[in-house]
Amino acid sequence: MLDIDLKKVLADFGDALGIELAFDEKGACVLTMDDETPVAIRANVEDSSLTLSSALRDAMPQTMSLDQIQNLLALALDPYDRGAASPVVGCDAESGLVVIYEVLAPSALRRTPLSEAFTDFMTTRQAVTALLDEQVEAPMAFADATTRLWV
Fold first, then answer.
1. Rounded Cα distance, 98 and 56, in Å
2. pLDDT at residue number 130
3. How does DSSP classify residue 31?
4. Which of 31, 26, 20, 30 is nearest to 44 (CA)?
5. Which pTM does this prediction carry?
6. What is the pLDDT of residue 79?
7. Domains of the chain, first to last
8. C-alpha distances in angstroms, 6 versus 1, 43, 50, 105, 129?
């Protein structure tokens, strides 16, 4: 199977946006959405995939409801349930930074234009940001939690 031309995929996405896009020397292209939301598109030349990523917040909320936690865990299983690429959320253990990311395999890039995958990514990003920003009435504090959640 032929490798996908990641430079062309990005250039086609730029054409759809009406701007010129290219990877830098490290294989990254960063777009700023709404003048405040940086989204990185990284080329993974080893497997011809693209990774979309964006920071959501500097840290996890100090308290979350059980519903919020379950929604984040459900999102983590979405790629498995759908059998396709889907954004997931992670938290860097060292810095605490909360990030949403999605790896688009060559098969996904052949099936779906990057513009469509990017729109879906941004829609999910917006929903997760709203979820993390919800005010919690019945919080479950991570530091005080005695209940273990098993998936």
1. 5
2. 87
3. E
4. 26
5. 0.80
6. 55
7. 6-141 (3.30.1460.10)
8. 15, 7, 8, 11, 29
Burial class (CB in 10 A: 0-12, 13-18, 19+), 125: buried
Residues of the chain scoring pLDDT < 70: 1-3, 78-85, 135-151
Nearest 5°: phi and psi at 99? -125, 145
**Residue 95's Cα: distance from chain center in Å?**
18
For residues 146 and 126, what is the distance between their CA atoms, to the nearest angstrom? Answer: 30
Structure tokens at 41: 């598109």
Tokens at residue 44, please? Answer: 């993974």
Cβ atoms of 81 and 37 closer than 8 Å: no
Are 98 and 56 spatial neighbours (Cβ–Cβ below 8 Å)?
yes
Q: What is the pLDDT of residue 20?
A: 95
